[in-house]
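tool=predict chain=A
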Amino acid sequence: MKVPVYSKFLLVLHQPFLHGLREGMAYKVDHEYDYLFKIVLIGDSGVGKSNILSRFTRNEFCLESKSTIGVEFATRTLQVEGKTVKAQIWDTAGQERYRAITSAYYRGAVGALLVYDITKAQSFENVTRWLRELRDHADSNIVIMLAGNKSDLNHLRAVQETDGQKLAEQEGLSFLETSALEAQNVEKAFQMILLDIYQIVSKKALAAQESAKAVVPTQRTTINVGDYGNNNQRKGCCSN
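tool=predict ok
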């Protein structure tokens, strides 16, 4: 079993990698994985994005996690409809003073998990602002899920589940309530996002094959999605 790769970034990234993000691509590779999909986590600071990231990629949770500074990402490889998909999950900082740098990281994203805290009404009210920013900077057909996190704190609930469902329906988003602490629906949320992305990319790939059967496949095929309308055992503390 491969160990997930976990890295932290501020502003320094290799230029070839950034170039790929600018082009808004999902990558199909013939070796260790079939597809690489970039997914961004967005939402207010303190809603639990970093713990969702660590729960999904490393099956860890930290009660004393600190606010993310800059941007961090982690990867996990899993199977989606018989294909090996490498999910690259980016956690963009929620603090207002870092908002200026986050727009660059929306580029190239084919999926997004927009997170609010069910115990903080303000984080839910800010969902529309985050959604507007995402749609301003990302591809128009990016797959988006709305997640009401910290469902384990139901006794402190300030946002009803029906309110989350209603907003998601109005905006055309999928919706789940999650708990990074209890590992509830975190796996399911990413599986749903990845499945939706894969189905879009598969349609594009099939259309490309039918229209250009004479093209000899290269080692790496780039698929532009811009044309389109596990383990629940808990582990120890992580560092953010």
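Residues 6-226 form a domain with the Rossmann fold fold (CATH 3.40.50.300). The CA atoms of residues 53 and 89 lie 7 Å apart.
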